[in-house]
Amino acid sequence: MRFDVLAEACYFTSHAMPLHIPFDNSYARLPGRFYAYCEPTNVRSPRLLALNTSLAELLGLDSGALAEPDGVAVLAGNQVPDGAASLALAYAGHQFGHFVPQLGDGRAILMGEVIGRDGKRRDLQWKGSGRTPYSRGGDGRAALGPVLREYVLSEAMQALGVPTTRALAALTTGEDVMREGRLPGAIVLRVAQSHLRVGTFQFFASRGDVEAVKLLADYAISRHYPEAADTAHPYRALLEGVIRRQATLVAAWVSLGFIHGVMNTDNTTISGETIDYGPCAFMDAFRSQAVFSAIDRNGRYAYGNQPHMAAWNLARFAETLLPLLGDSEGEAVAIAHAALENFGGVFETAHLEVMSSKLGLVTAVEGDRELVHGLFGQLAEASADFTLAFRTLAEAATDTPDEAPFLALFGTARGVHEWLARWRSRLAMEALAPTERAAGMRAVNPLYIPRNHQVEAVIQAGLKGDFGPFATLNEVLARPFDEQPGRERFALAPTPEERVVQTFCGT
Ligand code: AMP
Ligand code: MG
Q1: In sequence order, what DSSP letters do the residues of 62-113 get, joined into one string?
Q2: Measured from the CB, is residue 146 less than 6 Å from ligand 1?
Q3: For ligand 1, atom 14, which residue shows the shortest CA distance?
Q4: What's the mean pLDDT in 194-211?
Q5: Is 195 in the pocket of ligand 1 (CB under 6 A)?
Q6: Please, which pLDDT band fits residue 2 given cuts at 50, 70 and 90?
Q7: Ligand 1: which atom is nearest the Cα of residue 132?
Q8: pLDDT of amino acid 418
Q9: To which H or E segment does residue 210 belong?
Q10: Is the shortest distance between the CB of 357 and ligand 1 below 6 Å?
Q11: CA nearest ligand 1 atom 10, residue
Q12: How far apart are CA 147 and CA 187, in angstroms?
């Protein structure tokens, strides 16, 4: 077997110890109907494309050992490490509104769980590691493009401060997969606070297995909402907790112009992390109904529909919990309704809070919501670049204000001048010094986001065997709020020729 480790991507000084992963596999302690044991399928010649050394460190893993041939064999699934769980999770899900009673990890295998240096438990998962009992017609494999996308996008989201699954490593397998044509096969090592989904609850609820729903709810509480256990109604608190985290998550997405693209219930986590970077996109030109996903033909998951769809998914979650929520069905339904009604309020509050900070406001006053929506109106009218609009607004907030970069995004539109005047009079209501305000704005309005055209360029280079652009983009996106001299081009909106109008999940 030949191992081909890309040395320039990772430089290790420590001399590697043999790889030891201190697993503590709590999910595997649940009954057998929650998963299926299976092992990854060997791949011909794994090559490490990227190893996330800071994440490895957080997990308490030795990066040096991971980059050695034995470590790469583990990352590639050619070797199952001692103590691994090695199992595929069962789940169901509503896909674009249609219920599928059995999905499950069809191309992912849980290696196991580790407790990180921060005390947090996380799953380590092989994705693209071969068929499992839940593969249905699929090959259990992943192509290089989607693996690079997931690595770049998930780590960018992390750097942007959004709860997300992460990527520990990306590898090519040395084997091709058949998609629209022959493509290089790849594996991503996904790390998540867990892989529990609304669809996991649906799997058991749809089978009438209330005992399993209860076990799963207890498990979710102990893993993600331990504070719920101490309340008078733990399952109600679980539902409220998931609603709160999902509402806050979607507010964060919306504040960054992120469009998930495939918000099915099997892609809605109980932990409140973003999962599934298939057909997602960060929009450039603002449009409230923007859709990039090629599979989202009716715009179900359009930018502006995301809060609504999250609420829909949470209603499906609440349904699975009904037997646990009250003594009678009537009582349970009333409790679920009350919890779900909170979604709108939590979302609106979180959204207004984050948008206000993007505008440089540090207090909240009547009329802020209208000010925020006023800017959305201007952005839409001018099809202005969402990310640059907020970033350049910081330049207009300094003690030597420069409105030109902001105004340049709006072309000949006139309304934006009036909006700027309203914004200025609102700023005048606060005592904050301009330099402080501008710094605060730059700390929440990224300069660099994973723009579709740049992600696409990384994939195209990777398909030609050049992973330099992949490494560079990861580096840039690791510090999204900091100006990085010499990397100005990464901040630019796409030219009309560069614009990507559709994204594909490429499964
Ligand atoms: P996703 O689109 O990644 O959310 O996947 C939806 C379902 O299809 C999940 O059950 C996946 O595990 C499964 N799936 C996607 N791609 C493949 C594949 N290449 N082989 C087997 N199962 C797959
Ligand atoms: Mg998925």
Answers
A1: -HHHHHSHHHHHHHTTSSPPTT---EEE---EEETTEEES----SSEEEEEE
A2: no
A3: 106
A4: 98
A5: no
A6: very low
A7: 21
A8: 97
A9: helix 210-224
A10: no
A11: 103
A12: 7
Give the helix ranges, DSSP H, for 271-367: 306-325, 329-358
Tokens describing residue 399:
């003690």
- In this predicted structure, what is the pLDDT of residue 17? 63
Average pLDDT of 60-86? 97
- Residues 337-363: what's their mean pLDDT? 98
Report which ligand 1 atom has the smallest distance to the Cα of 505.
Answer: 2
Nearest ligand by distance to the CA of 269: 2
User: Is the distance from CB of 385 to CB of 284 less than 8 angstroms?
Assistant: yes
Distance from the CA of 107 to the center of ligand 1, in angstroms? 6
Pocket test for ligand 1, best of 35, 102, 107 (most atoms within 8 A of CB): 107
The predicted-structure confidence for 438-476, as pLDDT tens digits, reads as follows 999 999 999 999 999 999 999 999 999 999 999 999 999
- Catalytic-residue membership of 70: no
**What Rg, from alpha-carbon coordinates, does the chain have?**
23
Checking if the pLDDT of 1 tops 70, the result is: no
CB atoms within 10 A of CB 414: 9
Residue 188 has pLDDT above 50, yes or no: yes
Q: Whose CA is nearest to atom 11 of ligand 1?
A: 106
pLDDT surpassing 80 at residue 7: no
Q: Does 413 have pLDDT greater than 90?
A: no
